[in-house]
Amino acid sequence: MSDLEVRQLRYFVAVAEELHFGRAAGRLGMAQPPLSRAIRDLERQLDVTLFERTTRQVNLTAAGEVLLRDARTALEAVTAADHRAREAGRSSSRLRIALKADIDGGLLPQILDAYNADDAFLPPELILGGFGEQPQALRDGRADVGLVLSPFDDRGLDSEPLLTEPVLVALAAADPLAARTTLCLDDLAGRTVPGGAPANHGRPVGNRRRPGAARPASNLSEIFSLVETGTLVFFAPTSVARRYPRPGIAYRPVSDLPDSTLAVAWPQDARSPAVAAFVRAACSVAAAQAEPLVRNTTP
Fold it and tell me: If we measure between CA atoms, which residue out of 147, 90, 93 comes closest to residue 274?
């Protein structure tokens, strides 16, 4: 059997994640017939069936599930090698920090100040992305360190928790639920969060897209506009709710929704002194923030 090609793996992963040949073809920027042929060729090459196809749906077989797991790992390694080689070839070094705008618990300015004072300092570059994209940016070499919300996909990553805070649900001010002082997840039945998941499932903070769902809102401004119209609800850490008061939105606590934890994360194989300096700065700033809270709550 000939070796698998990166192109074949990309085609396969797109179909496996979308579970729809048309959507996968659109995602890859190609027509559907050549994609279908490529997948059939891959199945013949491996001598296995990767997808169960009917007129209504496409599902992964057991062999497909195994290949999906390993294909993702292989593609991540190839992409990381590309990004890290390019970064190593740059004339000036820098520290690339992955984060979602405004999802830093208000700590980022102080962290950067503390990091700037470290002897291992390298100029920082902020790598902004959507909700839940930061771990992947760390794995594929686009970023060196990141601020992420837990729980997250920690494959190949190390992390340290920084800040834990309650999560509120953002509702349209005209929503009948806004009249209550507190809610539970069952109260949110029938409503959805960005990305299309049912709100009463208690999806973690963010807007990661379900396979086959429409493109989620890409920033907080879009999300809050949709919340104000009653199109969806949104789970937000308390620090985000404080930063974005809007007359058309009501924030309410949800009694059975887990707290949100902000963490600093980095690749397990990282050896950069600048990464270590940023992690030290983040942990130091977070600890300093927590000390007044401990003093104020101690009997």
Answer: 93
Interatomic CA distance for residues 265 and 275, integer angstroms:
10
CATH code, 105? 3.40.190.10
Residue 100 and residue 248 share a domain: no
pLDDT digits (tens, 9 = 90+) for 99-141: 998 889 999 999 999 999 999 999 999 999 888 899 999 998 8
- The last residue of one of the domains, among 85, 100, 133, is 85
Is 39 contained in some domain? yes
- Give every CB contact of residue 235 below 8 A, 6+ residues apart in sequence: 167, 168, 169, 170, 193, 199, 203, 204, 205, 206, 254, 257
The answer, as to whether pTM is greater than 0.85, is no
**Amino acid, single-letter form, for residue 10:** R
| pLDDT tens figures, 164-175 | 999 999 999 999
Residue 189, domain extent: 167-253
Report how many domains make up the chain: 3
CATH code, 26: 1.10.10.10
Name the residue with tokens 């659109």.
26
If one counts every other C-beta atom within 10 angstroms of the C-beta of residue 138, the result is 29
